[in-house]
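Lab meeting notes turned into a lecture example. A postdoc, R.K., suggested we walk through two folding results consecutively so the class can see how the record format repeats. The first protein's sequence and structure tokens come next.
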Amino acid sequence: MMENVDAVTILGLMAGTFTTLAFLPQVIKMSRSRSSGDISLLMMSLNCTGVFLWLLYGFFLSSIPIILANAVTFALLSYALILTIKHR
């Protein structure tokens, strides 16, 4: 299967992995500390909406890197948004 994956797809998967993982420490910190006072609810809402739109865009393009990265990021952001609202 990997022999059919081109360099651009690998680049997209790598980019998606790093940008998704970059947000993971914040989500873990919010979950453990039960604190989100320094997190902007507006920023979280806008970011969550933007990532959801990127996910839809990925589906329209049938782009696996865009779909995977944004599906995972959307799940993380949704959880972080819930924590932000819950711990206010």
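The second example is placed directly after the first for contrast:
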Amino acid sequence: MPTPTPPWSIAYADGSANAYHFKSDGDGATFDYVPVSKEQSSTGMYSGGPPRQGRLDAATVATLWQQVEALEGNRALHQEDRNKGTGQFSIEAGGKRDFIVAMGDEVRAFDAFVRGLN
């Protein structure tokens, strides 16, 4: 499936509650990473590192959407409740959709992809 026509946005919270926000308003695509701080973590010790933001090129946007749509389409991975280790998605692109992906290889692969964004 091709990348949706802007405007669109994807909000993603990883298994440690670090937040990623992806969006395009038609003038390119951007991301913001909002990490959990030690003060916000349940243990008082975890930190998601420094916040970061940047622009996404067309190839990265295509990969992002390909991966998100694969996770959304694989209903066997979905679960009703948000638990530690799960990935929570909220998508706005021609309507709003929300889903939670269970802890496992698939969400870990997506986490590795978004952690690699600069």
